[in-house]
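Researcher: Quick test of sequence recovery. Tokens follow.
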């Protein structure tokens, strides 16, 4: 999982959390509290969109930093998916990395790439989705392999 992104319990329920990296004092001075109004975009495999809303903030006990949270989304960052296909330590050439990687079999890799291609085809029909995805990069896009839904995190 990406370091700023994690799942936790708050208010007795499991949530998806985005760590601000700021301690409470710095957070209150930063103006980042306004980000609670920001929304993410939920995208179905068919291209229908919905809203993912930040629902509040809390303090992370282990680091003392403030995090934003919203409804849990059962997906993983696209960056993590790509790293599982082609680990960063396998070299910079994608073909060398693919040949060196043994943690994922060819069939599994092919199935994952097909899901990504399907998502890209769907997103290509929506300039708003493409703009949001481009601004976020692969660390800010979560993909649910089970049902093909995607969450584009809030931009802030």
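Model:
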């Amino acid at each position: 999982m990406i370091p700023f992104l994690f799942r936790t319990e708050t208010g007795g329920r499991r949530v998806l959390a985005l760590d601000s990296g700021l301690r409470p004092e710095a957070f209150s001075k930063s103006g980042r509290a306004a980000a609670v109004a920001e929304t993410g975009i939920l995208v179905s495999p068919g291209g229908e969109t919905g809203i993912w809303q930040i629902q509040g903030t809390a303090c992370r006990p282990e680091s003392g930093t403030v995090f934003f949270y919203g409804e849990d989304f059962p997906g993983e960052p696209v960056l993590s998916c790509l790293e599982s296909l082609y680990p960063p330590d396998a070299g910079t050439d994608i073909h060398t990395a693919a040949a060196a990687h043994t943690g994922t079999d060819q069939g599994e890799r092919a199935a994952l790439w097909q899901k990504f291609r399907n998502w890209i085809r769907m997103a290509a029909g929506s300039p708003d989705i493409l703009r949001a995805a481009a601004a976020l990069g692969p660390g800010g896009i979560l993909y649910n392999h089970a049902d093909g839904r995607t969450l584009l995190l809030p931009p802030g």
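The chain has five helices and eight strands.
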